[in-house]
Amino acid sequence: MLAVSERQLRSWQKQGFVPESEFFGFSDLLALKTLKKLRDLHIAPVKIRQAIVSLRRILTDVDQPLAQLRITVEGRHLAVHVSGDKMEPISGQLLFDFDAKEMEKLRAFPGKRESGSGASEAQNQNSEYWFQRGLALEEAGAPVAEAADAYRRAIEANPCASGALVNLGTISFRMRKLREAEEYYLRAVKSDPDYPLAHFNLGNLFDEQGRAEEARGYYLAAIRLNPRYADAYFNLALLCERNNEILRAIGYWQTYLKLDSSSSWARAAKKQLERLKRTVRSK
Predict the structure, then answer these.
(1) Which residues are CB-neighbours of 243 under 8 A, at least 6 positions away?
(2) Most buried among 52, 213, 224, 226, using CB within 10 Å?
(3) 3-state secondary structure labels for all residues of the chain
(4) CB burial readout 2-15, b (16+ within 10 A) else e
(5) Cα(106)–Cα(223) distance, rounded to whole angstroms?
(6) Could you report the per-residue pLDDT of 217-263, keeping only the tens digit for each?
(7) pLDDT, tens digit, for every residue of 31-66?
């Protein structure tokens, strides 16, 4: 998936950069992606370790800097993006960076956001304005607090603004405020039960917490609402593998590959599928 050798992965595990586990959650994949980028830019592990220690000390609500923060390289030095600027790791405020694929998910404001909300047309328009404002702030690399404030304004204008609720949940999830993230996601599902992304994100949250059956239920709900939801099939396949449900995992991998046959994630899915097929044949 990330073109990282097993040897390199084990080395990072021994250094404490990622957990020693055979399975990785979404946060672990973000950390690995950052580590690979820093390795490719020839940043020494000792510098990475120093940056992690400093960031955890300064940013007390950050426990996974490699996954939660945007870390780049300026010359031979590490930098953290803070308030639109590049700061040394020993100073600054928390800032998140969303990639293009995730931004497309976040901007998918659900079509039924107005139904049953009791909000007037003016309130709905005001809510939409603040939702789009929040997206624009995130894309511009503004401080996360500014984007979160815009989403809260959207919810104040329309408490059933499911898109804003989901995006606030995602911000909380990245900050490891999991209980808060769960509350936002559940409110989004209640406001719009037909919003696949809200169900999918709840599945991710519960999966991260080891609440496998709850995660499974929400992944399946996302698929019922959108039968072509490739990411939900991908995560279901991983969940079934962890539960040793090999045949189910094979089925989900096969469905995923029908929907996505060419991305880097598809290459990883093909490897997993072949490995499971070999396991079944050997029994």
Answers:
(1) 212
(2) 52
(3) CCCCCHHHHHHHHHCCCCCCCCCCCHHHHHHHHHHHHHHHCCCCHHHHHHHHHHHHHHCCCCCCHHHHCCEEEECCEEEEEECCEEECCCCCCCCCCCCHHHHHHHCCCCCCCCCCCCCCHHHHHHHHHHHHHHHHHHHCCCCHHHHHHHHHHHHHHCCCCHHHHHHHHHHHHHCCCHHHHHHHHHHHHHHCCCCHHHHHHHHHHHHHCCCHHHHHHHHHHHHHHCCCCHHHHHHHHHHHHHCCCHHHHHHHHHHHHHHCCCCHHHHHHHHHHHHHHHHHHHC
(4) eeeeeeebeebeee
(5) 18
(6) 999 999 999 999 999 999 999 999 999 999 999 999 999 999 988 88
(7) 888 888 888 777 778 778 777 777 776 666 667 777
Type of residue at 127: S
